[in-house]
Amino acid sequence: xxxxxxxxxxxxxxxxGLTERLYRHLLDxxxxxxxxxxxxxxxxxxARRFGVxxxxxxxxxxxxxDEGLIxxxxxxxxxxxxxxxxYDLSSLVSFSSRCSxxxxxxxxxxxxxxxxxxxxxxxxxxxxxxxxxxEGCYYFIRRRFVDGRPVILERRWLASRFCPALTKxxxxxxxxxxLKERYDLSPAGARQVxxxxxxxxxxxxxxxxxxxxxxxxxxATGYLEGGVPLWFERTLYLGSAxxxxxxxxxxxxxxxxxxxxxxHK
Length: 265
What we know:
- The chain is built from seven helices and eleven strands.
- A hairpin with a 2-residue loop joins strand 6 (about 135-145) and strand 7.
- The strands form three sheets. It has a six-stranded antiparallel β-sheet. A three-stranded antiparallel β-sheet has the order 1-3-2. A two-stranded parallel sheet has the order 4-11.
- Helix 2 (about 45-50) crosses helix 3 (about 55-65).
- The protein is about 25% helix and about 30% strand.
- It folds into two domains: about 5-80, Orthogonal Bundle (Arc Repressor Mutant, subunit A); about 85-245, Chorismate lyase-like (Chorismate lyase, 3-Layer(aba) Sandwich), CATH 3.40.1410.
- It is an alpha+beta fold.
């Protein structure tokens, strides 16, 4: 990163407009010298290279972070942010397929795997999966990575009557591919509820971020043809890594839109 003449000033000469000029040079450097995912200089390094104070360097860096151009990773420093992954709400697309289309590398870590009949099933899981007495489901927690960065924390219940002899190793890859190739199951759709939530406790540490902020929580029930429920999930998506997209059709008066306002007191 070369230092232009108009930024070569004394350490003690915080000239007017310096933060703006520093910001613009860092912005140009991001475009010309760095690729998404590469490490970006720290505030200390920027201050030393350009002969400015740490507060000036910090203000310029904060602007880059506020604009979503760089991000902070716990214990690793700052990195050039990748463009957010597109979550298309109009269709079911596997995480692996979506990553491949974006040119990034997906990996999955199975944090917990529970076979049917073990543990307590929440009432909403029994209701959504329409489980009869004696029927069970698999339960697993997966942390999913993009180029080594955790972006998804997934908790999923899968009706066991459709997927006999499932193992922990089986769910370490694409679930959609597994359902199709081994069990000849093709999900026909899903009903989703999406909301923004703040993390706390253990879930926060699983994202490895200094400041996770808000995440998207997707609560969904997946169905086979005929409306037969196959899975229920509660999945967290890192807000800084995802954008949710939807396509709307023409204006319709036959079925008005419904919104829900929740007021927490």
